[in-house]
Amino acid sequence: xxxxxxxxxxxxxxxxxxxxxxxxxxxxxxxxxxxxxxxxxxxxxxxxxxxxxxxxxxxxxxxxxxxxxxxxxxxxxxxxxxxxxxxxxxxxxxxxxxxxxxxxxxxxxxxxxxxxxxxxxxxxxxxxxxxxxxxxxxxxxxxxxxxxxxxxxxxxxxxxxxxxxxxxxxxxxxxxxxxxxxxxxxxxxxxxxxxxxxxxxxxxxxxxxxxxxxxxxxxxxxxxxxxxxxxxxxxxxxxxxxxxxxxxxxxxxxxxxxxxxxxxxxxxxxxxxxxxxxxxxxxxxxxxxxxxxxxxxxxxxxxxxxxxxxxxxxxxxxxxxxxxxxxxxxxxxxxxxxxxxxxxxxxxxxxxxxxxxxxxxxxxxxxxxxxxxxxxxxxxxxxxxxxxxxxxxxxxxxxxxxxxxxxxxxxxxxxxxxxxxxxxxxxxxxxxxxxxxxxxxxxxxxxxxxxxxxxxxxxxxxxxxxxxxxxxxxxxxxxxxxxxxx
Length: 486
Known about the structure:
Elements: H1 2-37, H2 40-61, H3 64-70, H4 76-108, H5 113-120, H6 122-139, H7 143-166, H8 171-192, H9 203-237, H10 240-273, H11 279-306, H12 308-315, H13 324-349, H14 353-374, H15 378-397, H16 399-405, H17 409-436, H18 441-462, H19 466-485
Helix pairs in contact: 1-7, 1-10, 1-19, 2-4, 2-5, 2-6, 2-9, 2-10, 3-6, 3-9, 4-5, 4-6, 4-9, 6-8, 7-8, 9-10, 9-14, 10-11, 10-13, 11-13, 11-17, 12-18, 13-15, 14-15, 17-18
């Protein structure tokens, strides 16, 4: 059983890598093209309203997806109940956003937001229509199908958005990208994962799922609110252009760290949930996840921070260079994303959502205090307060990992030491070369990626790190066999 589960893990990881190389890279390239065609102000307009859609989407899901994934088998009543509930809540959220759109526009002093909110709101209903299909595929650990769907969706919606931006549609090109992305995704999910729709609402299923999901919902709402509140404050107290710069910097870190962290969560949660009754194997599973995710994420964040200026100049153009400092600060935060997520996932795997809510409240009280202090020092102070909050969160999130798995933070840090030290050496080397030469941005960027990457991988190879040995001796051979079988 252990080998079968590991094979599933490797296969899932393989398809996530394909997803990152295909869908996420395509999405990133599309964003770059749009950034060259559109202005920072147009990106800022969209960022102003994202908090309302993040909160609405979270409320629609209500933690049901995580509850379903934990089940050994998902019954038809569970599927139908989740579908009906999600759809009803989505319609309610859309109605609320439709009627409050003018107030949102007044708050930000941007009249266009009324129409933007009302049109974008439709994606909530579309997303709710396909969420159960996505959950079922994740429960099966079927990331191959999800990867194919996402790639097609990204290319179609992104291609249309680029055409609209070229034709002068401005911010509406970005709105169309989001809306069409949800539409194509839902259509393809239904096509590839057929399910006989039954509009049945089981009170028993609802009580079971909501019993687990309700506290998770509260935790997720609090987390989403504080993740987005910085954008709200920038849009309200600074300018739409400044928010555009911050939004673009956020896009880069999300592409490199947040997307990878979310992919890790998609893989590890259903797999490690199957080990919840064997704590020794569960701990070893988490150790491997932390080591290998750090092996990838830490060097990417450090090198992206060092190469922020040539990266922005080459990809999105010199008009985005004021976002350089924002990107560097967010990269400093991005190093922690996966560690925070993995530590929190343990509580979900063990079913202790009550503790998730408790520590989320503590973290957000601290975050709120930091934001109030930080904003006194302007936009940079506000972002620095956000970065500090992520590092404090590691201390809090790892508390219960120590209690339940006997895997304290000091042991976690020891497991990622080689990746952190080697990445810092690579980053410092690239920074010194960058400071001593006067090369064009493209040459600096290519030199930094190739040189920094080579130094990082070379150090892992020379010192025969656990991560490097696991990659060469276990993961790659298994992945190769699975590819041949596919």
